[in-house]
Amino acid sequence: MSEQKSSGGNEPLIVIASNRGPFSFTQVKNGGFTAQRGSGGLVTALGALAERHEVLWVAAALGKGDEAWQAAHGDQPADVEGVRLRLVRTAPRRYDQYYNVIANPLLWFIQHELWDIPRKPSITGETWKAWRSGYQAVNRTFAEAIADSVKDTDRPIIIFPQDYHLYLVPHVLREMLGERVQIQPFIHIPWPGPDAWRILPGEMRTAILTSLLASDRVGFQTQRDAFNFVQCCRLYVDDAHSHGSRNSIDYHGRRVEARTYPISIDIEKMEELAAENETRLLKAQMMAFVGDSKLILRVDRIEPSKNILRGLEAFRELLVNHPEHKGRVQMLALLVPSRMEVDEYQDYLQQIMADAGMINAEFSEESWEPVRILVGENYRRAIGAMQIYDVLLVNPIADGMNLVAKEGALVNQRDGVLLLSEHAGVFYELGEHALTVSPFDTYGTAEAMHQALTMPPGERHDRAEALRAAVKSSGVRSWFYAQLDDAMRTLSSQSKNASTS
Ligand code: G6P
User: In three state form, how does the secondary structure of 308-346 look?
Assistant: First the structure.
């Protein structure tokens, strides 16, 4: 594979940096390692990219196997399935402060606007400690590992730091590597307007914004996020000016673009998975589980921003306001555990189970239990269930994109209706073919459920076809290549300028 890669001459070296890496490692008895490939969209996009370009991926070592793998490679990059991988090792305490105190929940909660502001958060001495010896330190370690890994190349370098874990990486990289590198972060989660960011003390906010302004271009999921970023820079960063532009900021001699690249799914891989025998078996299980009832499905990580509680409340209102659905509709929630170390997440799961229990206690009849919740990670089972829903409920309070909406629309076989929050990034691509709701409006969501359950077949079919076509028009590879193309264009205009000056 490596002979076909463009690795010589002036071809750029592509560096991805993300908290969670593409592989996790387990040490086996003979001292060797087995590598398990992650399933996220970025991993998929990169798989294709790595066949054509030389790619270095820098990620955190998560757990003992990862630590041992990186130690065995002397803290230098090593090849794994066509990707050069370097795992960053940090002290567990620092990592905990970075991940469990600052990134999740503080930044995540601010960016999804989840705080109960009269009570939380308080930025305590512990938070400041976590900022300095956790978030800042881990970001610096990441940037140093990147700089160290690229120090011997004289080729152009494009670095793509991913997401809210690594906001401070661009600043350190620019300090260490100067103007010879292109730095292009992508932010997967929502970027709210300036008011949401007032929760963060000025010093932290400025550090984040000025670091991102050390990049060449910052990528966002939607135009709204990009616009909000520009507004934040104008308001909070001295010397940052947009000169009337909605998608760029001039800061200290650099024009930083805020560009939109909506992420998507791996269409071919989804279709393959949907056709596999194991998925078919799980789909049959799900069909037996649901019986003759119509299915309202949700598939989510257990995550307060997903708005699972109001989804249940809306379902309850449906049964109260439209009792004809009693005994004829099943709500099935497939929930994947996430970040259980964060208190808010644990409380949230408990509340979900309690609320579902209350609905079942109020409405269950003989063999019909209105709400079923399956907790656990089983991607094929989720795909099986997505094939047979009548209604897919995607009602987050805020969401960068929400790929479940795209996955569901692609694989569903029953002309299922998408019930979509207007605060999910995917709303801008799929909203016109979905029934859209305010995530706070449980009455409106219940009415939309009723509308979906009683929609004439012709309309369901037309909407489902339009959704599928919209999803198929752009997969995850085009998401990544659009960013790469922009970075390459800047590189080539820089080298032209350099040769003419
Ligand atoms: C969600 C978000 C991503 C984020 C990820 C981190 O999937 O959409 O933007 O990077 O969570 O999750 P983790 O499990 O790695 O903390």
Answer: HHHHHHHHHHHHHHCHHHCCCEEEEEEEECCCCCCHHHH
Q: Are 199 and 129 in a shared domain?
A: yes
Q: What is the CA radius of gyration of the chain?
A: 24
- Tell how far the Cα of 425 is from the centroid of ligand 1, in angstroms: 15
CA atoms within 13 A on the CB side of 87: 25
Selected residue with higher pLDDT from 42 and 62 = 62
Give the pLDDT confidence score for residue 411 in this predicted structure: 98
| Domain assignment present for 4 | no
Cα separation, 288 vs 295, whole angstroms? 12
Give residue 347's pLDDT. Answer: 94
pLDDT 10s digits, 91-136: 999 999 999 999 999 999 999 999 999 999 999 999 999 999 999 9
Residues 272, 209 share a domain: no
Q: Do 200 and 331 reside in the same domain of the chain?
A: no
Q: What is the mean pLDDT of residues 362-366?
A: 94
313 lies in the same domain as 297: yes
Mutation probe of ligand 1 site: the residue of 114, 186, 189 with most atoms within 8 A of C-beta: 189
Between strands 254-260 and 248-251, the pairing is: antiparallel
pLDDT at 50 (0 to 100)? 78
Is the shortest distance between the CB of 189 and ligand 1 below 6 Å? yes
- Write down the pLDDT at residue 7: 53
Q: What separation in Å is there between the alpha carbon of 499 and the centre of ligand 1? A: 42
Q: Is the CB of 53 under 6 A from ligand 1?
A: no
How many beta carbons lie within 10 A of that of residue 349, not counting itself? Answer: 19
How much is the pLDDT for 249? 98
The domain tally of the chain equals: 2
Whether the Cβ atoms of residue 487 and residue 184 lie closer than 8 Å to each other: yes
User: What is the Cα 70 distance to its own chain's centre?
Assistant: 26
Give the model confidence (pLDDT) of 198-216 as tens digits: 999 999 999 999 999 999 9
275 and 147, same domain (yes or no): no
Other Cβ atoms less than 10 A from the Cβ of 188: the count is 20
Residue pair 335/374 in contact by the 8 Å Cβ criterion: yes
Are residues 199 and 78 part of one domain? yes
Same domain, 417 and 291: yes
Specify whether the CB–CB gap between 335 and 302 falls below 8 A. yes
Residue-averaged pLDDT of the chain: 94
| Residues 84/78, Cβ–Cβ less than 8 Å | yes
Residue 498 lies inside a defined structural domain of this protein = no
Residue with CA at minimum distance from ligand 1 atom 10:
163
Q: Kindly tell me if the per-residue pLDDT of 498 is higher than 80.
A: no
Whether the bond between 105 and the residue before it is cis, its omega within 30 degrees of 0, is yes
Is 359 inside any structural domain?
yes
What's the CATH number where 175 sits?
A: 3.40.50.2000
pTM of the model: 0.95
Range of the domain at 132: 13-263+478-492
